[in-house]
Amino acid sequence: NPPTVEQLQQQMRGGNFSYLGKLRYLVKGIRGSDSFWRGKTAELESWIDYHIGRGHGPPTHFTTLSCAENWWPDLRRLLADLERQAGNHSHAQLLLDDDFKAMCASAKRFNLYVNDFFMKRAKVFLDTVVKTALGIKHYWARVEFAPGRGQIHLHLLGIGKNKSYLYDFYRAKTEEEKAKIMEKYATNVLDMTSDVEVDEEHKTDTSADSISPLKRRFCESVDHQEDSRLLCQECMVHKCDNYCLGDCPKVEPRQCRFEYGKETEYGKADTDGRE
């Protein structure tokens, strides 16, 4: 029989933690528990140790794949079919008419289909673009669900094929030298740069007439350079609003949770921004 709480406390006071160890082992299969995440941490550490032992090197990339479920044209078409099968013909027509609110509602209603669609797209992306363009040879990924709207996303650790820059990085004596090495790798190998002219006042257009690159497939792009600029403007430029500032009137001045400063007047979202 399992001990009572009082008996377990007495055992622990006497230095006997054997039953506590059994409890940790038993609850390891309960998702979200402390033991569950400890087990996942151990799995990841074992994965890293294995690849280091095989000479593949340590993970050098961390990437998050977001769902962006309200923008994919192929998912919109699939959701329209599901709405039609469910007898929601008027809602299906709204989807075909590129109605953004209708897309948000359908993505929440058929979230299992959204998750399956995302995982299939992510698998293809990881096996093609990530391995070819980013040069990632090995990766470990974990699926999570956003606490707010509950939508799926994926966090990834990757080990790159080109590890020559690591030797220079570890030989560097100052933080400035290390930063220059990483900057050179990000620019020359990954083609990452912030040298893009964007409109700081740009606001996302969710209308049916929107020219947002998020609503187009890559094969539909006629100007890859302009498409990259618009994508950067759409996804990488932060503009403060109630999402990051919060909408509690008792908190004044409100401060951006992404560290873009405080607003000078409540409701104006006129934060200083950051360099």
- Calculate Rg over CA atoms: 24 Å
The largest sheet has its strands arranged as 1-3-2
Shape: globular
Number of helices: 11
Approximate strand percentage: 5-15%
- What's the pLDDT, averaged over the residues? 85
Poorly predicted regions? none
Number of strands: 3
| Range of helix content | 40-55%
Structural class comes to mainly alpha
Kindly, what is the distance between the CA atoms of the first and last residues, rounded to a whole number of angstroms?
A: 62 Å
- Give the biggest beta sheet: 3 strands, antiparallel
- Helix/strand order: HHHEHHHHEEHHHH
Quick synopsis:
This protein is mainly alpha-helical and 275 residues long. It has helices spanning 5-13, 18-26, 34-53, 73-85, 89-96, 100-109, 111-132, 164-171, 175-188, 224-235, 242-245, and strands at residues 61-66, 136-145, 152-160.
